[in-house]
Amino acid sequence: MLKLQNMTLSTRQILDDIALCLVFFTRLPLPVVDFRERSLAAAIWAAPVAGLAVALIGGLVFAVGTWLGLAAGPAAALALAATLLATGCMHEDGLSDVVDGFGGGRTREKKLEIMRDSRIGAYGACALALSLLVRWSVLSEFAGPAQIFWALIAAHAASRGLFGAFMHLLPAARSDGLSADAGIVSAETAIAGAVLGAVALLALGFGGAVAALILVGVLFAAFRTLCRNQIGGQTGDTIGALQQFGEIAILLVASVCLS
Q1: CA distance 178 to 39
Q2: Using CA atoms, how far apart are residues 115 and 110, in angstroms rounded to an integer?
Q3: For residues 215 and 30, what is the distance between their CA atoms, to the nearest angstrom?
Q4: pTM for the whole thing?
Q5: Ordered DSSP codes for the chain
């Protein structure tokens, strides 16, 4: 049994929540599961587990690449590509939509309209390019697969641990869409996800975990304020952008602590 304040989950519910997050946040070929109407909002605490799966895939690809004789740069590029394939670029899409909307819209309604547009603008393209460049440059500088594994585990799991708290602290900006359909995240669920994410930061060592926690906390607060001011809440796109910002911030800390 998993207990946290008023949240009590059976083993079956824990496994269902993990499976639901894997199905929703990754493109892994998983068997069909009956979630018995369990909502994403209730299961969001398990998002860091989906991040762990993505991290292990990326780390494994890097390890195989270097074992085959690839230099760190190409191996890092393949590892990054593997994580993108594993998630279907879900969070990258959110990042580009948010930057396009916040940068190109003058009103709340126009920003939301731009964010829903499937086309990508100059702001979004530049944001994606910078995100990929920073992440690749960090990964390519690590000494070997062990550092890559620890860095990816911390970055992917902890960045997804922010989801529940973000959805709990900000209302949905739209009455429809992924975030609105997910439901309302309870405080207990948000805390559980944040705790799992914080534990993942220990992969950076105690000092690195503290530094990353502070940096991510500041980033979280700043982005929450920005979203409230720009669109009055959160959407699926803003959650994706938050993941990208968190992943980048943690990888930067890892580049100092693990290199």
Answers
A1: 12
A2: 9
A3: 34
A4: 0.93
A5: -EEETTEEE-HHHHHHHHHHHHHHH----PPP---TT--HHHHGGGHHHHHHHHHHHHHHHHHHHHHTT--HHHHHHHHHHHHHHHHTTHHHHHHHHHHHHHHH-SSHHHHHHHHH-SS--HHHHHHHHHHHHHHHHHHTTSSSHHHHHHHHHHHHHHHHTTHHHHHHHS-BSSSSSHHHHH-PPPHHHHHHHHHHHHHHGGGGHHHHHHHHHHHHHHHHHHHHHHHHHHHSSB-HHHHHHHHHHHHHHHHHHHHHHT-
Residue 37, C-beta contacts closer than 8 angstroms, at least 6 positions apart: none
CA distance 225 to 233: 9
Assigned token pair, 257: 């602590």
Length of the chain: 259
At residue 30, does pLDDT exceed 70? yes
Task: Check residue 5 and give its pLDDT.
Answer: 44
Measured CA to CA, the distance from residue 97 to residue 111 in angstroms comes to 9
pLDDT of 156 > 60? The answer is yes
φ/ψ region of 226 (left if φ > 0, alpha if ψ in -120 to 50, else beta) reads alpha
